[in-house]
Amino acid sequence: MEKFLTLPPTLEEAEASLGTAERIMGDLRRQDGVAGEEEMARTEFEIATSLSRLCQRQGRSKEALCQCERALRLVEGRWGPAEACAVYRDMAAVEQAEGRLDRAIQHLLQARSVAQSQDPGVWRRPASPTAWRWHTPRPAWAQSQDRALRFFEESLGAYVSTLGPQDVLTLSVQDDLCRLHLLTGQQERAVKLQRESLALKRGLFGDLSPEVANTLQLIGGVEMTQGDMRRAHKTMSKCLEIQKLLLGPQHRKTRATQQTVDMLSEAPEVAGRQHKAGSLKTRPPFCAVIPSHNVPGGTNVASSDC
Q1: Integer CA distances (angstroms), 280 to 228, 265, 266, 271, in order
Q2: Residue 233 belongs to a domain
Q3: N or C end of the chain: smaller count of CB under 10 Å?
Q4: InterPro entries recorded for this chain (predicted)?
Q5: Parallel/antiparallel/unpaired status of strands 300-305 and 288-294
Q6: Is residue 147 included in any domain, yes or no?
Q7: In this predicted structure, what is the pLDDT of residue 133?
C-alpha cells in the first residue's frame, strides 16, 4: 500500500493512484478485525492529505479543501489532535495562498482549539468529534488586525506548549505569524521571530535546506527595506550559496537571488567595504622598522623586523 502514497506529479495520475488504493481498501473493509479497519482509515487519511497538498501546488484550492475535509472526517473519533492540527494547518495554507487571510486565521484558530483540548502533557479527545472543529466561537476578529495578531500569537503559544518549539508545525505557524507581521508593517517583530527560528530550523532541517534559505531570504528582504544594505548583502549571499547547492545556479529562484546580491553589491556601503577588503589583500607585507640609535660605547645600530 505504501507505493500508492508516493503520488505522481500530475493530478490525473494521483487520482488514478487514489482509485487503485481505494479498491485495495475495499478489500480491507471486507476483512474482519479492527486492525484491518484501522489500517484502511490511516491509509485513506494519508492519501487525502497528500492529494490536498498536490492540489494546492497545482492551484486547485477547491479540490484541496475538499480533500482536507475528507481527512478531517477520517480523523474525528479515531486519533489524537496532532492529525487534526496538521489538516487545519493545510487548510490555512490553502486559504492564505488564495489571499483569504480571514479564513486562514479561522482554520488556525480551530487548530488552536484542538491543541487546547488536551490535558497538560497528554493528548485528550473532546467529548464529541465535532468539538474539535467548532469548539471556538467565531468572533469578528477579521475586523481588527490587532486581534488577528493576538489570535496568531496565542495559537503559536499553544503549538509551542503542545508540540514544542522545534516541531515542524510550530515553526510553520511561526512563519505565518511573521508574514502577518509583515502585512501589518511590524517588520522588526517579523525579523526577530525569523532570527530566533533560524537556529531551530538549522537543527531540524539542516544548514543547507530550503527552510533555512527561505528564512534567510525573508530576513534579507526586510533588512533591505530598512536600508541596512551591508547586512542584507551578507544575509542574501548566504541564501544564494544554499540555493546554488540545492537548486543549481540556473534555477529561477537562484537567478533572482543572484540579481539581488549583485544589486546590493553596488550599494556604496557594500562596494566601499569590498574595495577596502580588496586593498588589504594587495597591500605589501607589514614591516616594522625601528629607527637607528647609538649604543653606548659602540657603533650606530639599525634594527628591523621584516
Answers
A1: 24, 18, 20, 14
A2: yes
A3: C
A4: TPR-like_helical_dom_sf, TTC23/TTC23L
A5: antiparallel
A6: no
A7: 33
Tens-place pLDDT, residues 152-163: 787 788 778 777
Determine phi and psi for 139, rounding to 5 degrees: -75, 170
Q: What are phi and psi of 166, to 5 degrees?
A: -100, 5
Helix (H) or strand (E) segment spanning residue 292: strand 288-294
**Domain for residue 91, yes or no?**
yes
- Length of the chain (residues): 306
Residue ranges making up the domain that contains 76: 39-116
Residue 223 and residue 212 in contact, taking contact as beta carbons nearer than 8 Å: no
The CA-atom distances, in angstroms, between 239 and each of 48, 212, 227, 247 are: 34, 8, 18, 12
Query: How far apart (Å, rounded) are the C-alpha atoms in residues 195 and 189?
Result: 10
How far is 212 from 95, CA to CA, in rounded Å?
24
- According to the 3-state scheme, what is the secondary structure of 125-181? CCCCCCHHHHCCCCCCHHHCHHHHHHHHHHHHHHHHHHHCCCCHHHHHHHHHHHHHH
Nearest to 159 by CA among 109, 198, 103: 109
- For residue 261, pLDDT beyond 90: yes
Residue 16 located in a structural domain:
no
Average pLDDT score over the chain: 73
Number of domains present in the structure of the chain: 2
What does the pLDDT read at residue 43? 78
- Residue 278: which residues within 8 A CB-CB, separation 6 or more? none
Instruction: Supply the CATH number for residue 248's domain.
Output: 1.25.40.10
